[in-house]
Design goal:
The chain is an alpha/beta fold. The chain folds into 2 domains: 20-301, Rossmann fold, CATH 3.40.50.450; 309-365, Orthogonal Bundle (Arc Repressor Mutant, subunit A). The chain is built from 10 helices and 13 strands. It has helices at 76-91, 104-114, 136-144, 163-174, 188-199, 216-223, 232-243, 309-322, 329-336, 340-352; strands at residues 33-37, 51-56, 65-69, 95-98, 119-122, 148-151, 177-180, 203-205, 227-228, 252-253, 288-289, 357-358, 364-365. A 9-stranded mixed beta sheet has the order 1-2-6-5-4-3-7-8-9, with helices on both faces. A two-stranded antiparallel ribbon has the order 10-11. A two-stranded antiparallel sheet has the order 12-13.
């Protein structure tokens, strides 16, 4: 997932502590940028990069850091959930990391600032050319409220294709855990989750059940064994676990070689303990899987109970009558007279609690 060499490295002409006002034309950002070496107070895990640039007030290395990422095209409910998670993290004393992008990232940073918390924006390009430009005021507020900006590229490097993935690598290696609020299957958020997973960073996801395109990435993470964040109390529990140095409780080491997880989230339903995988991105790094949901007590391991109970019972009844052949999602949707997305979401929840299973044919059975 990481790039083989630093993009833009060597393009910087500024030494440590150089002011951005001395480097760029009128309209330079009102913050000071420093080049920093890679050491323990910047990254949580070794990463394939040699130097970084940061602005603002860097947080104490002892504070828990949690990344929160998600789609740029999030729904109103998803943006609200992002704010709730950011607020809970601030109340729990954690540092909130995100990518500074539109959508979920902006909501997370903004809520942390409003709640007088500390937040760090990891940007794709140089700090003298913050991206997106429309978030310049947001970045200024972050720096002014004892937050920080971080980049792996020299100050004058503009954001461009390829640097966004490099940003994801940096973010994944700078945090103690990563929460995915919403994501499409093929998205920058899923790249970030895959990178974190391969690096041994606990990955958590919000268990949406509305069948929307933006829920597909989270559902695939959950069926792969990622933890579910379903309530503010789960966020507090997560921070407490990380603060106590027990992040390994969120991971489950597995000896088998990794296998790519290609299951469509709309066809999700295979319980995590039945999956042959160690990472979701198909790489050999880390060689680990995540423990099934339900391993920990409390809200951290519980899916929200807002699936249609009547629909769940109907699906179980249909599968009970379908015999060894089972039933496809299309057949279940026809029997239930419900949208396929709603049926898929309910099947996911039933699979995660062990009430149904996915057959080798791709159909569902009891």
């Amino acid at each position: 997932m990481a790039e083989s060499r630093e993009q833009g490295e060597g393009a910087d002409t500024a030494g440590p502590g150089t002011s951005m006002g001395a480097q760029s034309a009128a309209g330079a950002p009102p913050w000071h940028c420093d080049r920093v070496a890679l050491h323990g107070d910047v990254l949580r895990r070794p990463a394939p990069m040699r130097q970084l640039w940061r602005a603002g007030t860097w947080p104490d290395a002892a504070r828990v850091r949690v990344g929160v990422i998600g789609s740029r095209r999030a729904s109103a409910d998803q943006l609200h959930t992002a704010r709730v998670i950011a607020r809970a993290l601030v109340e729990a004393g954690a540092i909130v990391f995100s990518g500074g992008a539109q959508g979920v990232d902006a909501e997370v940073h903004g809520e942390a600032v409003r709640r007088e918390g500390r937040t760090v924006a990891v940007l794709p390009g140089g700090l003298a050319r913050p991206f997106p430009p429309s978030h310049r005021d947001l970045f200024t507020r972050i720096v002014a409220t004892n937050g920080a900006l971080l980049s792996r590229h020299p100050p004058l490097v503009p954001a461009r294709s390829g640097l966004f993935l490099a940003r994801n690598v940096l973010l994944a290696h700078a945090v103690d855990a990563l929460i995915v609020v919403c994501a499409e299957l093929r998205s920058g958020s899923m790249h970030g989750a895959s990178t974190a997973w391969a690096a041994g960073v606990p990955v958590l996801a919000v268990p949406w059940t509305n069948g929307s395109l933006n829920s597909a990435g989270c559902l695939s993470l959950l069926t792969a064994g990622a933890r579910a964040i379903a309530a503010p109390s789960a966020v507090a529990e997560l921070v407490a676990i990380l603060a106590d140095g027990h992040a390994e409780r969120l991971l489950s080491r597995r000896p088998e070689p990794p296998a790519r997880y290609t299951e469509s989230a709309l066809d999700a339903g295979l319980p995590p303990q039945q999956m042959r995988l160690a990472t979701i991105d198909g790489s050999a790094k880390g060689r680990q899987g995540y423990a099934p949901l339900g391993h920990l007590p409390g809200q951290l391991s519980a899916l929200p109970d807002h699936c249609d109970a009547a629909l769940a019972e109907l699906l179980i009844d249909v599968l009970g009558r379908s015999g060894e052949a089972g039933a496809s999602l299309e057949e279940l949707a026809i029997e239930a007279a419900k949208p396929r997305g709603e049926v898929a979401a309910t099947a996911l929840r039933l699979a995660l609690i062990g009430r149904v299973r996915r057959l080798e044919s791709g159909r569902y059975g009891l």
